[in-house]
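Schema walk-through. Below, the input block comes first and the output block second. Nothing else is stored per chain. Lengths vary across the set, and this one has 401 residues.
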Amino acid sequence: MAIGRKEDLEQARAQHLADEQDVMVTVLSDRQLLIPGFVDTHIHAPQYPNCGLGYDKPLLEWLQAYTYKLERKYRDLEYSRKVFNAVVRRTLNHGTTTACYFASLFQDASLILVDAVLKYGQRAFIGKINMTTLAPDDYVETPEETIKLTRKFIESVRSKDCELVEPIVTPRFALSLEMDSMIELGQLVKEYNVNVQTHISENTDEVKQVNSKYGLPYANVYDKAGLLTPKTVLAHGIYLTDEELSLLSQRGSSVSHCPDSNTCLKSGMCDVRRLFSFGIKVGLGTDVSGGASPSIVSAMRSALATSINLSFGQKNYKPLNYLDVFYLATLGGAEALSLEHKIGNFEVGKEFDALIVDMGVENGNTDLLLDCTPLELLQKFIYTGDDRNIAKVFVAGKSVK
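--- output ---
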């Protein structure tokens, strides 16, 4: 309703809260911060049980050896319910008020994730995976099934009539489908005006295979299919060429920076400064279970480390700082998901997705924080904090923790 300086508080309360009988007022201590909720722009809900496992192999081998074996289990709807409830609770505990989820190949399991998000009150995009090739024979769909079930999934999610949860078209990556299927998905995107999520240029072998299969640069493959829109978020983007980055900028598509996963799977280091130089929107992703933790705070630290490591090999390179990664975790993520009109900061008129962070609970050493400014408290939280410091989580003004 209003933002401003402390000395303006009483005037704002008089203006906006004429009758305070039904209003609960919370005054933060000097060791507490009110910050926007975190936005995870790329997370695989079915992979949560594999967090911390299987990092001995690169991406394409990792998918075959570990990931697809786990994801096939989601035919079991009770197993799906158990895992997806745990995923939503855990991400909320880490302060993720908005998540962009890859769900399951199986529609019924994907709808269970939708129900879990609704149950716990998180804001989310949820996508049923599209995959017709490059996976075990018992873990693919036919081209006809993938389009039919995606349409059905979109309509099922929309029928829930909840503004917090939206369907998102989710081709796994360019090697998982043929061009005809991707073109049909692009038509669904246009028909239903939905967001798109997929992977791009994560691994050098993957990039070579895409170029060989389609005879096109990776970004151009998606563009030909009509999948590059202002509401498209592409995970990783490590090896995009200047020409591809120019194309993404022209289309208004965004990149989800997943530094934990890029390290764990030995994929490479994404240069966020380079993405910014092309005017591309960037958010942070945990990429569970490519990343070992569903914590956006962990992703912020990894983004800092990646940027610092890049600076060692480039003259006059300015690494990201803690305010840069805080932006990526909040407003940057909102922009990447085309939600900046609703969330990401405390601009008047936006919805109240927020966290109260209490650095006074850190090991009981409150005496060490007596002289910290709010920015210093934020810096300490990013570098040393964890979910124990998150005292409250709000989504659209409702407390969910």
